[in-house]
Amino acid sequence: MATKNNFSKAVLDLMGLPGNENAPTGRPQDAVAETVFDSTKKIDMTIVKEPDAEKETDIEVERRKFLYNAKTVTASTVVPIQEDTPATVISRSMVIIGEITSSGDIDIYGDVKGSVKTDGDIKATGKIIGDLAGNSFTLNGCTIQGNISAQGSVTVGLNTIVVGDIIADSIKLNGKVKGNLTIAKMSEFLENALLAGDVHSQTISMSQGAKLHGNVSVALDSSQSEKEFDSIFGM
Hints:
The structure is a single chain. The protein is α/β, with parallel strands linked by helices. It has 2 domains: 2-69; 88-226, no CATH class. The protein has helices spanning 2-14, 27-69, 222-233; strands at residues 88-90, 95-97, 100-102, 106-108, 111-113, 116-118, 122-124, 127-129, 132-134, 137-139, 143-145, 148-150, 153-156, 161-163, 166-168, 170-173, 176-178, 181-183, 186-189, 194-196, 199-201, 203-206, 211-213, 216-218. The strands form 3 sheets. It has an 8-stranded parallel sheet with strand order 1-4-7-10-13-16-19-22, with no helix packed on it. An 8-stranded parallel sheet has the order 2-5-8-11-14-17-20-23, with no helix packed on it.
């Protein structure tokens, strides 16, 4: 027993704990066990934390790799989204009083009292009182009182009445127009065409049945006319 107590005392001395020779047998051992247990707990806690630190390190490494390999988005690599501008529709039951301005196509089925301006095309089957300006026009079964200015072509369909001047790149007339036509290229008069006004165009085509009351002027520049006559007279 003395040897055992001496051993316990030596252990306590090494760990810096006070010894008690008169204490019952087993107390120092319990203290040693508790101390060893506490040390074991601390060691275990330290061991548990180490994998978490390693895991966080791995995540940080992957994050750096991702940022390194990521491509920088610049204005040149971004493709803008192209949205189609829907057509503005004026239904048959609608009556518009005032100016209409748009950047897209306009479909007019109702009545409009006011000017209409757009960068797109205009389709009309209703009644319009006012000037119209746009790209191309398709007029079917409508009544228009106002001037028409078109960057492209104008189609005046059957049962369509236009009271006003028309300026366009080309025209296909199968309705009735009371006004002057100023056409840059082709003027085509179909069998139901009726024009009360002058025509100034580069080329004119008239079908049988078309009626025209006014002056006709076919554009021909001076250089072109000289070439025509020079070829005729061999000059």
